[in-house]
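Human:
Take a look at this sequence-structure pair and walk me through the tokens.
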Amino acid sequence: MGDDRKQNEMEGALLFDDEDEGGDDRGARDGDGGHPGDGRAEEAMEFLSGVLRRMGLDARVTVREDAARVVLDVSGEDAGRAIGKKGMTLDALQFLANKVVNRFPERRRYIIVDSGDYRERHDQGLVSLAKREAKRALDTGRIVTLEPMPARDRRLIHLSLAKLAGVSTKSNGEGLGRRDILDPDLGPEPVLVAEGAQAALGRDA
């Protein structure tokens, strides 16, 4: 029964092993010579529009760019399905777009796939969660283990708590089960964050 529910939640999602996440777009983030007008934005938009069409989604793609990155914005009736559960489909589309557009090392551009202000709201929710659970770890003196997250979200948790005194963060687990651990260095007993604590982060826009 539980397996069937999990399968239904993931239906239609594009999933990649956590070890592959980021892949060839890491170099693109550093800016390897791409620039507005180099054709990368148009290539990315055409690719993403084609993928959404093949997924049977009623969605449109608009593009904006600067010297550092290309942002593809997905809108339309099926934008929520393009986001997917906890943004997993959106992350997978971004992964694919970066793989295709940056398949050659010269003139790389970092491609971001978004839908409205989804990523901004999602990131704000993650930062709030990180600070709230870090405070709980400090108040209780116990390790807090967050739910499994994709690499991008785990990195944001690490960065948001990097300057917080008294709490260290690390990732544990493998693949899609990899999760962040908040350690106050005061006690060995872990506290597992319940699914409800992160439910808001999993809603479609």
User: Anything to note?
Assistant: The longest strand covers residues 69-75. Strands lie at 60-65, 69-75, 110-114, 143-148, 168-172, 179-183, 190-192.
